[in-house]
Amino acid sequence: MSDEQQDQPRPVLRVVKGDLTEEELAALVAVVSVRNAAAAHAAARRPRRVRSEWGHPARQHRTALRVGPGQWRASSW
């Protein structure tokens, strides 16, 4: 690859078959860009799921055992 080819950005859309006019290519680019914008808009409107705290990894750690009166009863909760 030459230095000139490395400086140019890679095309996002490439026509590999057929002979498009400038108007047809512009219409194709418009449709693809609107579709991408609509998908991004739909993803932004989707509500975020709140993670349940029930399975949170921090709940797997136990607290230290305390010794003293009434602690046997308090250890179950």
From TrEMBL:
Highest taxon in the source lineage: Bacteria
**InterPro entries reported in the protein's UniProt record:** ACC_epsilon
Any one Gene Ontology molecular-function term assigned to this protein's record? propionyl-CoA carboxylase activity
Where is the stretch described as Disordered?
Answer: 48-77
Recorded protein name is Acyl-CoA carboxylase subunit epsilon
